[in-house]
Specification:
The chain is of the alpha/beta class and about 325 residues long. It is built from 15 helices and 9 strands. Bound molecules: coproporphyrinogen III.
């Protein structure tokens, strides 16, 4: 929390996107025979899975185990998460009539999230819990395409071709996302991260015109609640200054831009998060250490730094490599 607020820290804090997941044998064991979205609705399972990487790696924060599509499922959309594929939507949203299916999220729709966050904050003690949500653009892409997409062509066709419908769609998603974050904060989450994972597919002028207003609305809705707000996307080197403008306290950076350069692009008054390439963890331990040292060195030029990977932990990552990395970041940054 101090690093997010750009205050002095005893050592650089570290957590990993997708730290709770398939890289852990204990995760694969408890998830056996239980569908992804079903597991997100069981507070006992959510609590156990969220705590697993904290126990094993001694990371400085837990990330709430859920998924960006959980609030969309909660308002009644027919969608599923297919193993090895990702979210799949039965009836994609492509017209004004389709928009009516996107009703506002009520806190009670996700009562299991409130329950799980409550259980978790009791178990975690002083370790912060990071809540999260998908950003309007990334959610819109899944809803319009009907599933994961390489080129986001239907999404962009709607964005360019029907700006009024696009604006209304993103506005509704911003409302749903804001409620989902507020539920987690009200239940005790210490920080929140907005995942705009696929924003890097956009040119800056399109991001500014067509996406930034909706993401800003989300950050405004959770401003003044006393919790740091993190904003993350992949391939966003050319968008970093705009992502900072949306209102986050911390901007997450993937591995393509060094953190000192990223901080220059984001501008003053923001901390940074990142940004070791997740694939580096497949190299020998000395290489991991050398690359992590480069990240820590570049971060010295920033106002605040939370160590993370540049994107999520890859499922076949050796969990021991992650534990060693946490230890290395802690000891090296202490000096
Ligand atoms: O530690 C954590 O970060 C756990 C919580 C978490 C999950 N999904 C669990 C999950 C978070 C923060 C997410 C966010 C999420 N979901 C994003 C944004 C982050 C990112 O990666 O950019 C996105 C784009 C999604 C959509 C999604 N859900 C995808 C692309 C997939 C992978 C599909 C696959 O099997 O390859 C999912 C499923 C998912 N979400 C899994 C987990 C652990 C894997 C499902 C499983 O374990 O069976």
């Amino acid at each position: 929390m101090r690093a997010c607020r750009r205050e002095p820290v005893p050592h650089t804090p570290v957590w990993f996107m997708r730290q709770a997941g398939r890289s852990l044998p204990e995760y694969r064991q408890v998830r056996e025979g239980i569908a992804m979205l079903d597991s997100c609705m069981r507070p006992d399972l959510v609590t156990e899975i969220t705590l697993q990487p904290v126990r094993r790696h001694r990371v400085d924060a837990a990330i709430f185990f859920s998924d960006i599509v959980v609030p969309l499922k909660a308002i009644g959309l027919d969608l599923d998460i297919r193993p090895g594929v990702g979210p799949v939507v039965a009836e994609p949203i492509r017209s004004r009539a389709d928009l009516e299916r996107l009703r506002p999220l009520e806190p009670d729709d996700v009562h299991y999230v409130t329950e799980a966050v409550g259980l978790l904050t009791a178990e975690l003690g002083t370790t912060p819990l990071i809540g999260f949500a998908g950003a309007p653009f990334t959610l819109a892409s899944y809803l319009i395409e009907g599933g994961p997409s390489r080129n986001h062509e239907r999404t962009k066709a709607l964005m360019y071709g029907d700006p009024d419908l696009w604006r209304d769609l993103l506005d509704r998603l911003a409302g749903i996302t804001a409620t989902f974050l507020r539920v987690q904060i009200a239940a005790g989450a210490s920080a929140v991260q907005l995942f705009d994972s696929w924003a890097g597919a956009l040119a800056p002028q399109d991001y500014r015109r067509s996406v930034l207003p909706a993401s800003t609305k989300v950050f405004d809705a959770v401003a003044g609640l006393g919790v740091p707000r993190i904003h993350f996307g992949v391939g966003t080197g050319e968008l970093l200054h705009l992502m900072g403008q949306a209102g986050a306290d911390v901007v997450g950076v993937d591995w393509r831009v060094p953190l000192d350069e990223a901080a220059r692009r984001i501008g003053p008054g923001r901390a940074v998060q990142g940004n070791l390439d997740p694939a580096v963890l497949f190299a020998p331990h000395q290489v991991v250490q050398a690359k992590a040292s480069e990240v820590l060195l570049a971060a010295k030029a920033t106002e605040g730094h939370v160590f993370n990977l540049g994107h999520g932990v890859l499922p076949t990552t050796d969990p021991d490599a992650l534990t060693r990395l946490v230890d290395f970041v802690h000891t090296t940054s202490q000096a």
